[in-house]
């Protein structure tokens, strides 16, 4: 009898300790939010867990190309395979799907960002939290600037509860490429129109 009471008492202490830890975590998050601290919403493991093989994303594209013509296209992304270190994705525009080289899956290392819109040697600057509306719906996001060693520069809206998925991406012209600068293209905006996870 005494042993059962001791065991029940120990379990009650563990439950209370877990509840206290949750309260402390919630209080810390509330404090950071009040202070305007923005935290990265994703971790490596959550991105890997959410982007299962068969996940497909579709984005509407808007902007102006290097020749000054309006861009009317769609971007598609598909997860084709992965292991603990790398993910294989196929990413193509409607206008490119007849090009065999484009329709080949490419490998990228897993990270805390989306493998779609991959930027080599990237640096991320978190800006703010924001609710954003796109054709696929309204999402709570963390907005960040992603820049790369080779001049790539994007603003991304990371969906808080969909690790690895951007609701919106604004791809800015490459500031290190003289040919791109001379052509003076505009930003290209991608807005999520559909997301599907294979059952």
Summarize, please.
With 199 residues, the chain is α+β, with helices and mostly antiparallel strands. It has helices at residues 2-34, 44-50, 178-183, and strands spanning 56-62, 73-82, 86-93, 106-109, 123-134, 137-147, 153-159, 166-172, 188-196. The protein is elongated.
Keywords:
199 residues; alpha+beta; outer membrane lipoprotein receptor (LolB), chain A; 2 domains; nine-stranded antiparallel sheet; 3 helices; 38% strand; elongated
* Strand-pairing-aware structural class: alpha+beta
| Outline | elongated
How many runs of DSSP E, i.e. beta strands? Answer: 9
Give the integer mean of the pLDDT values: 83
The CATH topology of the largest domain, please? outer membrane lipoprotein receptor (LolB), chain A
Number of domains: 2
Order of helices and strands: HHEEEEEEEEHE
Strand content: 35-45%
Count, helices: 3
Per CATH, the class of the largest domain reads Mainly Beta
User: Main sheet?
Assistant: 9 strands, antiparallel
User: Radius of gyration, Cα only, in angstroms?
Assistant: 21 Å
Quaternary state, please?
single chain
Question: Which regions contain 5 or more consecutive residues with pLDDT less than 50?
Answer: none
Task: Describe this structure as you would to a colleague.
Helix content is 23%, strand content 38%. It is α+β, with helices and mostly antiparallel strands and 199 residues long. The protein has a nine-stranded antiparallel β-sheet with strand order 4-3-2-1-9-8-7-6-5, with no helix packed on it. The protein is elongated, with a radius of gyration of 21 Å. The mean pLDDT is 83.
């Amino acid at each position: 009898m005494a042993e059962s009471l001791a065991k029940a008492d120990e379990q009650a202490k563990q439950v209370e300790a877990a509840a206290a830890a949750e309260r402390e975590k919630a209080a810390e998050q509330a404090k950071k939010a009040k202070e305007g601290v923005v935290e990265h919403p994703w971790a490596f493991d959550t991105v890997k867990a959410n982007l299962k093989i068969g996940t497909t994303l579709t984005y509407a594209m808007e902007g102006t190309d290097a020749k000054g013509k309006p861009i009317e296209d769609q971007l598609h992304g598909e997860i084709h395979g992965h292991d603990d270190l790398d993910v294989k994705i196929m990413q193509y525009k409607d206008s490119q799907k007849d090009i065999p080289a484009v329709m080949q899956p490419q490998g990228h290392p897993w990270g805390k960002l989306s493998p779609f819109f991959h930027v080599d040697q990237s640096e991320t600057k978190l800006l703010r939290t924001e609710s954003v509306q796109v054709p696929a719906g309204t999402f709570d996001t963390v907005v960040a600037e992603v820049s790369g060693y080779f001049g790539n520069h994007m603003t991304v809206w990371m969906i808080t509860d969909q690790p690895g998925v951007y609701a919106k991406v604004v791809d800015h012209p490459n500031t290190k490429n003289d040919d791109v600068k001379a052509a003076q293209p505009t930003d290209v905006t991608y807005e999520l129109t559909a997301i599907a996870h294979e059952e």
